[in-house]
């Protein structure tokens, strides 16, 4: 598979889907949904110039520290973390780049995710300001907040419908601008959801991404996922998210086990290391 990818016999998209599958990710489990990278950082220009390296996200860094400004905060958090009981290892992020709530967040406009989101929010839509309402605003929030580390889902590269409120759901209105949340606000360079998907997919298959994608793969699926390389890369997540970190079968207390299972399901899971 790797050789095929290197020889450009399969696309970046297909390669990522295959890696996700090999690492146990599947569309059938929201807690282990396929994870894809944010690949661009230009969501404001009128035109998207894929020949300009500056429009791309730095794929060698976890999303939480793509903005240099966040690196110090993230590092300090890790270095100053002490668990008095000595059970919890140090970590850079208390949240995760892929979890069930995040998948529902992105796919809120299409069923069955709408219903699942409403169930998660105790029977109603979450408040409008927390909804996925704009791609530029979502990116900006990631850059401003080192605690928000959501990566993307494959749909961003092939499924324009999830960007439209075709079912006419009432998603509420934003507090400050009083704007109703409806279709997702697109970057200026995208003229329609289809145009966004077309250009975004083109960006994924671009020269720049082809040359740097392996850096992101190392972080998510490879050697920088855990151990000293992960510490150095500012890429350590809460211990419960790693495969084999918790032996659920060894927990005799049913309540404790249920609580931990719930946490793992909601918290996000790091893919199996390939």
Describe the structure.
The structure is a single chain. The protein has helices at residues 2-6, 12-22, 68-79, 100-106, 113-120, 135-144, 193-204, 207-220, 228-232, 254-267. With 274 residues, the chain is mainly α. It is globular.
Strand tally: 0
In the residues, how many domains can be counted?
1
Radius of gyration: 19 Å
CATH class: Mainly Alpha
At the fourth level of CATH, the homologous superfamily is BEACH domain
Structural class: mainly alpha
Tell me what the CATH architecture is: Orthogonal Bundle
Specify the number of helices. 10
Biggest pleated sheet? none
Unreliable residue runs: none
Task: List the topology elements.
Blueprint: H1 2-6, H2 12-22, H3 68-79, H4 100-106, H5 113-120, H6 135-144, H7 193-204, H8 207-220, H9 228-232, H10 254-267
Summarize the structure.
With 274 residues, the chain is an all-alpha fold. The protein is 36% helix and 0% strand. It has helices spanning 2-6, 12-22, 68-79, 100-106, 113-120, 135-144, 193-204, 207-220, 228-232, 254-267.
Features:
BEACH_dom_sf; 274 residues; Neurobeachin-like 1; mainly alpha; Neurobeachin, Chain: A, domain 1; 36% helix; 10 helices
């Amino acid at each position: 598979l790797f050789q095929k990818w290197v020889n450009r016999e399969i696309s970046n998209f297909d390669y990522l889907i295959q890696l996700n599958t090999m690492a146990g990710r599947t569309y059938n489990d929201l807690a282990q949904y396929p994870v894809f990278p944010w690949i661009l950082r230009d969501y404001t220009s009128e035109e998207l110039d894929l020949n300009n390296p500056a429009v791309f996200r730095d794929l060698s860094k976890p999303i939480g520290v793509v903005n240099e400004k966040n690196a110090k905060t993230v590092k300090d958090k890790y270095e100053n973390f002490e668990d008095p009981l000595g059970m919890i290892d140090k970590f850079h992020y208390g949240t995760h780049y892929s979890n069930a709530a995040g998948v529902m967040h992105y796919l809120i406009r299409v069923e069955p995710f709408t219903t699942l989101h409403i169930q998660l929010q105790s029977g109603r839509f979450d408040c409008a300001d927390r909804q996925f309402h704009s791609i530029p605003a979502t990116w900006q929030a990631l850059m401003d907040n080192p605690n928000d580390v959501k990566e993307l889902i494959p749909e961003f590269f092939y499924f324009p419908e999830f960007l439209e409120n075709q079912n006419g759901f009432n998603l509420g209105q934003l507090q400050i601008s009083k704007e109703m949340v409806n279709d997702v606000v697109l970057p200026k360079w995208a003229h329609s959801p289809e145009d966004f998907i077309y250009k975004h997919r083109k960006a994924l298959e671009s020269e720049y991404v082809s040359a740097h994608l392996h850096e992101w793969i190392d972080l998510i699926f490879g050697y920088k996922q855990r151990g000293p390389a992960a510490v150095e890369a500012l890429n350590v997540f809460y211990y419960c998210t790693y495969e084999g970190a918790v032996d659920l079968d060894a927990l005799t207390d049913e309540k404790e086990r249920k609580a931990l299972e719930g946490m793992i399901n909601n918290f996000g899971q790091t893919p199996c290391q390939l």
